[in-house]
Amino acid sequence: TEVSDASGMQLLDIKNRCWSEEVCQKLGIDMSLLPALYESPEITGYISDSVASETEVPAGVPVAGGAGDNAAAAVGTGTVENGKAFTTIGTSGVVFAHTDKPLIDKKGRIHTFCCAVPGAWHVMGVTQAAGLSLNWFKNNIANEFSYSEIDKMCESIPIGCDRLIYLPYLMGERTPVLDSNARGLFFGLSAMHTKAHMARAVIEGVSYSLLDCVNVLNETGVNTDNMLICGGGSKSAFWRKMLADVYGTDVKTVQSSEGPALGAAILAGCAGGVYDSVEDGCRNTVHIGDV
Fold it and tell me: What is the DSSP letter of 258?
């Protein structure tokens, strides 16, 4: 395995980028059961003859460590230096920032992981039901509309949705409400409210939940002013504009819409000697789109 994915197992010494002997001893876990650890752009092996015959990838091609989904998205958006952050609106929503030192929130509201850049870390806040909230609303309440039509509906509704509030806790919550029993809510419903009000309330509720993540990151000393965005929800210009307003900063897209896949390709390029470093790969590959 590699360090960014291993960071989610609760057995990793995040600071020292190795398995925690202390944790394993106290839990009675035989450390010989744990796999070898690699950095994300490091060569972990080579394509074998048998795999080559099955996949048509030539034998001898190096295999990189790769990265977990959000760590790969960081590379694919160029979030590989201090002062850079990105928001992902997928099924869940993530606010992710790069840091050169392991910053820990003692209240447990955010995650600190080893990132895909050797010797660096990332801090990450998570909204469990981001795009999922809008998907749930569309499938169960507004199935007759496309996502682009829902955007247009929302534009006709004033900010604040005439006092209709949505809490996006359909799957419990992680940041900042660390509670698996938290539940979603429409608050303030009245006869004046329409599907358009509810749709905008969903997008506003998710956006403010992501702002909760930004605020916690800022509390730890992380700068989130240089904000990029990726994920399915980022295709909505309406949602991007709302996030820029809520965050109070520019929100930038990247020209490639497939951030995590691009990040994995850059890591493979580092392992194969195409790029000198992850940062070099990003400088050559990642380009800013709309702001």
Answer: -
User: How far is residue 126's CA from residue 108's CA, in Å, rounded to a whole number?
Assistant: 12
Q: Which amino acid is at 47?
A: I
Catalytic annotation on 69? yes
Concatenate the DSSP letters of all residues of 94-156 into one string.
Answer: EEEEEESS----TT--SEEEE-SSTT-EEEEEEESSSHHHHHHHHHHT-TTS-HHHHHHHHHT
Integer Cα distance of 31 and 139 in angstroms: 46
Catalytic residue among 69, 162, 212, 280: 69
Q: Which of 266, 287, 265 is nearest to 277 (CA)?
A: 266
Here the tokens at position 48 are 């074998």
Looking at beta carbons, which pairs linking 148-151 to residues 24 or more positions away fall under 8 Å? 150/199, 151/236, 151/237, 151/238, 151/239
Nearest 5°: the CA angle 73, 145, 128 is 35
- pLDDT per residue, tens digit, the chain (291 aa), is 999 999 999 999 999 999 999 999 999 999 999 999 999 999 999 999 999 999 999 999 999 999 999 999 999 999 999 999 999 999 999 999 999 999 999 888 999 999 999 999 999 999 999 999 999 999 999 999 999 999 999 999 999 999 999 999 999 999 998 999 999 999 999 999 999 999 999 999 999 999 999 999 999 999 999 999 998 899 999 999 999 999 999 999 998 877 899 999 999 999 999 999 999 999 999 999 999
Q: Is residue 82 within 8 Å of 222, Cβ to Cβ?
A: no
Q: How many CB atoms are located within 10 Å of the residue 12 CB?
A: 23
Residue 200 three-state SS = helix
